[in-house]
Amino acid sequence: MMNLFDNLTLASMVPGHHNLTYHLVVILIAALAAFIPRYFPMHFFTNRKIPEWFDEWMKYVPVALFTSLVVKGIFVDSKYQLISERVSWLGNILVYGHATYIISAIFVMLVAYFTRSMAFSVIIGLLAVWLLSFI
Questions:
Q1: What keywords would UniProt list here (predicted)?
Q2: What is the C-alpha separation between 17 and 14, in angstroms, rounded?
Q3: Are 29 and 23 in contact (CB under 8 A)?
Q4: How does pLDDT run across 5-57, given as a tens digit for each residue?
Q5: Model pLDDT, residue 125
Q6: Domain edges within the chain
Q7: Number of Cβ atoms within 10 Å of the Cβ of 70
Q8: At what angle do helices 99-115 and 61-75 cross, to 10 degrees?
């Protein structure tokens, strides 16, 4: 019986384990892919005056991105469906989202508001998720 891979040299399609040229080319392409998106905005906006309205609007982008990531982590699963679970320790009520994450997020918001400390907020959030996972 003839093997399907007899006529194909599979080794020629996959780079060799010790192929230095291939690895250097991959590293160079990865470096360019990381450098170009950082260089061009800096190059184009260095000599141009950014409008005040645009600069003011861009201050909200990090907060909006962070909020969208947190909300997705709490309320949406990996299949992009809304999470709903019954929580027995809250009287068997239906909660949309991970109940432990929601309660932990409330603790983090309160701590962040009153202390303005990022490190303390992260520590409180981690402790809250850990402690509520035992319930």
A1: Membrane, Transmembrane, Transmembrane helix
A2: 9
A3: no
A4: 555 454 455 555 667 888 899 999 999 999 999 998 888 888 888 889 988 99
A5: 93
A6: 10-51, 53-132
A7: 13
A8: 150
